[in-house]
């Protein structure tokens, strides 16, 4: 573990020096970094889904760099500074709270029982939230956001969110407007959720197949 700690500390120190001495990095803000964070996150996803271990190791490093970069920027904030140690400390405290079956006396023998403890701890931490939808990032991709919102809405509305909100429909049962297309897409996401499928991943993987078909037709 000490070797791992040393490597992480070295990475944090490298980031600190880059922030202080690199002209480009000196002017970067949290907002400026958002596109890079999104890109690096998707590159990690690609590496996971393609099963490329070397690529995954590299992309996880690039994603870690984004975390270190944000922490280095935050450390220079004049009003509410915090650094990577504060981030790590807060993370450790939260994970200990959310795993009372590991670090406390609670018992969880199944994944469902683990979720009970997790959700209870999370609810206690987020007492100020008034809606089940609070805390859901609206910048998520639409399919992933739909699946997340359906999961949050289910205890409140049951299956109602997947019910069509529009009236018209073509004779073939196909959407005849963009609004009806939205209904149809939401219904498909609800179907994916009912089966335990990831709608976003399903479309990504199908698109990879389409890319392969295109490249094969091109002779690439």
Compose a concise summary of this entry.
This protein is 71% helix and 0% strand. The protein has 220 residues and is mainly α.
Q: State the share of residues found in helices, binned by percent.
A: over 70%
Helix/strand/pairing category: mainly alpha
First-residue to last-residue Cα separation:
45 Å
**Beta-strand content:** under 5%
Low-confidence stretches: none
Q: What's the order of the H and E elements?
A: HHHHHHHHHH
> How does the major sheet shape up?
none
**Domain module count:** 3
Tally of strands: 0
Overall geometric form: globular
| Number of helices, where a helix is a run of at least 4 consecutive DSSP H or I residues | 10
Rg calculated over all Cα atoms: 22 Å
Mean pLDDT: 89
Which key phrases capture this entry?
220 residues, mainly alpha, Helix Hairpins, 3 domains
Please render the helix and strand layout as text:
Elements: H1 2-21, H2 23-26, H3 30-50, H4 53-75, H5 84-98, H6 100-103, H7 111-125, H8 142-157, H9 178-195, H10 199-218
Helix pairs in contact: 1-4, 3-4, 8-9
């Amino acid at each position: 573990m000490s070797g791992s700690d040393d490597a992480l500390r070295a990475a944090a120190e490298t980031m600190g020096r880059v922030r202080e001495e690199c002209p480009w990095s000196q002017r970067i803000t949290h907002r400026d970094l958002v596109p890079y964070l999104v890109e690096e996150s998707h590159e990690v996803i690609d590496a996971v889904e393609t099963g490329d271990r070397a690529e995954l190791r590299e992309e996880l490093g690039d994603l870690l760099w984004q975390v270190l970069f944000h922490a280095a920027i935050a450390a220079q904030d004049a009003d509410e500074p915090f650094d990577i140690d504060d981030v790590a400390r807060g993370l450790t405290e939260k994970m200990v709270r959310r795993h009372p079956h590991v670090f406390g006396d609670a018992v969880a023998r199944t994944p469902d029982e683990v979720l009970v403890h997790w959700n209870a701890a999370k609810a206690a931490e987020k007492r100020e939230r008034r809606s089940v939808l609070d805390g859901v990032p609206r910048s998520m991709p639409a399919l992933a956001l739909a699946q997340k919102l359906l999961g949050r809405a289910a205890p409140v509305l049951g299956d109602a969110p997947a019910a069509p909100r529009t009236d018209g429909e073509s004779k073939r049962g196909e959407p005849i407007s963009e609004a009806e297309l939205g209904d149809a897409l939401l219904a498909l996401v609800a179907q994916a959720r009912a089966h335990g499928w990831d709608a976003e991943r399903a479309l990504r993987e199908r698109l990879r197949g389409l890319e392969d078909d295109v490249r094969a037709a091109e002779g690439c």
